[in-house]
Amino acid sequence: MTPKEIKARWVNFHRQIRLMSGTRVQRTAGRILGEDTWRYATARFLFRPLLQLVRRLKRRAAPVKTVTKVAASKTAPIFPVNYRPRRFDVAAALAGLDFDPADVAIAEVDVAASPATVIATLNDTLNETVAEWLLLVDPSLGEDERLYAAATLLTHATPGDDVVFADETGTNEFAPILKTPAIAPHTLLSYNSVGRPALLRVETLFRVGGFSPAAGWAFEHDAYLRLSEAKATFSHVAKVLPGGRPASFFDASFINDDTLRVVGAALERRGWRGGVTAGDLPGLARWSLVAPDPAPSIDIIIPTRDRIDLVRQCLAAIEEKTTYPNYNVIILDNDSIKKESLDFFAATKYQVVPCPGPFNYAKIVNRGVRHSSADYVVTLNNDTVLVTPDWLERMVALAALPDVGIVGACLKDPDGRFEHEAIVIAPYPQHLRTDSNYPHVDHYSTAVRDVAAVTGAVQMVEREFWESLGGMDEQLEVVMNDVDICLRAQMEDRYVVYTPEVELLHHVGSSRGKLDPIDDRNRFMRRWDIFGTFRDPYFPESLLLLGEKMYFYNTSP
Hints:
This protein is of the alpha/beta class and 557 residues long. The protein has 3 domains: 3-61, no CATH class; 90-289, Spore Coat Polysaccharide Biosynthesis Protein SpsA, Chain A; 298-552, Spore Coat Polysaccharide Biosynthesis Protein SpsA, Chain A (Alpha-Beta Complex). The chain has helices at residues 3-21, 24-33, 38-61, 90-95, 115-128, 143-156, 185-190, 202-207, 219-229, 252-270, 308-321, 339-347, 361-370, 391-399, 443-446, 463-468, 481-491, 518-528, and strands at residues 104-108, 133-137, 163-167, 198-201, 234-240, 274-278, 285-289, 298-304, 327-333, 351-354, 376-380, 384-386, 404-412, 418-420, 423-425, 429-431, 449-451, 458-462, 495-506, 543-546, 549-552. Strands 8, 9, 10, 11, 12, 13, 14, 17, 18 and 19 form a 10-stranded mixed sheet that branches. Strands 1-2-4-3-5 form a 5-stranded mixed sheet, sandwiched between helices. Helix 9 (219-229) runs parallel beside helix 10. The longest helix is centred in the N-terminal third of the chain and has 24 residues, at 38-61. The chain is globular and about 80 Å long.
């Protein structure tokens, strides 16, 4: 990728942000001065400090608004902001598709019947059908809509697919349920991330035992869990199609008990010791695992240059709240010079590792890990303050799973606003925040889930796995080193898991300001072809995060 190509990608990205999320002043200035001119750059340089001051004053004056974790209703706001339900002639669209109805057995799921009756009928269909695929539908769905959903999904099916599923309307047609391209095992434990409409390959479903009578109304979720455990292939069609789940499946009294039972059974099948409780939304399971016994050793690695006020605050919260029995702290000193700092280092009971030289976060952290002999390491910013006492128990229980590489947590700013709920790459790595850029409460945003990346401000990794990766890339000196190591972990067939059950406060930018070298970002862009072929497998591909707003765009023909 040439420097010219890199610049063109940045220009296009920032143009999209200004057009979609910029203020009226920014959009007007872009039109008058030109999007990529010295005139626009000069205007930004001169007026940015004033605009930043105005935004800070507005922020201070505005009351704190946090998203309440409750289910969205039919009167919920539009999400994404530009989404509108597609209106079209289903019969005409169906006529344009090449589709043999004999390929799909369409089975009704009547919630007026008992779940035992429904499941028995579905299993009879599995035993008797000669069709290749099974599609479950609600009795209220019209014939043309059923066939259109089946035909569209079948158009996208390949010989290697076991489940082909699409996005669905949900309870609010202006806030559809947009799903991720990959169905990852830890997210699927948290909620039914496949849903409907979905084609299930009859042979594969038959091979895993069909639908379980013990699963109750969560029989689909249970089947998807067992299919996932059997390494079935899930394929997502990024289209909002008819044939989604009826309203009853979004009613806690209807679905919760059965959901908790099937998720608990999945934990038992996997040999994972833990428990399951109901989440804040219908069908959302809060599952947690028991930490390994005996407790693995954990080193908490905290880089700093002076700012002993932050270090003291960070350590005080760790020491006062942490309930985990087997942890230690390693402080990484990057050329501190203040007497207060040197006195603190001389008196502290913790190991202090000198890390001289220009600030290179990746190099500093790698040096800290090399001085650790613990089973697991936690990278922790000095400007964080622990909130959750059993944070290490929760994180190490996840990090100890054989398919997990890195575990991250939830960060809030000092005002209680969400500041980090994992990193999404849509199309560029950005922190997901339900108090601002994802102002929509759904199962995705509230679940323990698999993600593309988590911030290095708090990451837990098995030390030997870290070393096998070669640590962080020290050529990414300041930024993107945390995202890069998460992506490399996934290249080794390890998942990156975010848990909202662990919270810390983060005084973002307090320790090292806003260092943000463009060379790091360009190197990261070239390596992973950002703005090009890269797609975040764990975030809906129909969503674009531009500035502080989520936008919908249809990626599927």
